[in-house]
Amino acid sequence: MSSLQKPVYSQLIKAEAEKLGFLFCGIAKAGFLEEEAPRLESWLQKGFHGELTYMENHFDKRLDPRLLVDGAKSVISLGLNYYSEQQQLDPEAPKISRYAFGADYHDVIKQKLFLLLNFIREQTGEVNGRAFVDSAPVLDRAWAKKAGLGWIGKNGNLISKQKGSFFFLAELIIDLELEYDVEPTQDHCGTCTRCMDACPTEAIVAPAVVDGSRCISYLTIELKNEIPQEFKGKTDNWMFGCDICQEVCPWNRFSVLHNEPAFQPPPELMAMTKADWEEITEDTFKKVFKNSAVKRTKFSGLTRNISFLKNS
Description:
Helix 1 runs antiparallel to helix 4. The chain is globular, with a radius of gyration of 20 Å. The relative contact order is 0.18. The strands form four sheets. It has a four-stranded antiparallel sheet with strand order 1-2-7-4, sandwiched between helices. The protein has a two-stranded parallel ribbon with strand order 3-10. It has a two-stranded antiparallel sheet with strand order 5-6. It is an alpha+beta fold. 33% of the residues lie in helices and 13% in strands. The protein has two domains: 154 residues, no CATH class; 105 residues, no CATH class. It has twelve helices and ten strands.
């Protein structure tokens, strides 16, 4: 491909990503993530991944996308907005993270990624590539940062100066050389520590370092055993996920409402009362969360969380 074609293809890809509903799209050169290697190693050695032992696997692949896709040249990072101001009607009901209000984001984003990959192939010819949404050893935030989409905040999330942080990240890794975006050098958190101060389980142990084993999202979704007693009364009524460190972030005053129909919550979910949740049956669970990310915690996991809150 001539050097003249690279910016043309990059612009076409970004325009198509916007048409597909992505909030933003950035492109980075595929290579070894040198800065991330010691950080990831230290994080794992400290046991901050808790029971997520799979995080210890494929260390090299996490740091080099060329080991995931033969001949990888470009990592296309995409963000899909999920910000919503809708709230559960009963203020005393156990809380669900905004990202899980609607359909499972894995399914919604994968479909869009495949459409984008097909578009790239139509424009450029035979391209080898893979789509990733939380499903493989890819360091989403590191690649999004490298693609110029934002900086890693003190809460460990990627933050965009224009859009805040209520968005999902996903990637296309392809063997096509493109024009690459410049990584922003500035961190705009400054001296603010609102997220660190607000975390009820003190999971943010240092700027941009999260002890995952103390994070409410981990405790209510990923943890398969009983929630440790030390967290009684500290999970702020969250039964699936947690939005605290994003809700207190000043940059999220720039969040805009999503326009993805699939992320609209079913009315019966938002209307459930505290009593409804405490008496939930497996049939109700299957009906309300039929296409939801909440299925990840299973009925047994959700009822464990509700029971933990009730006895806190």
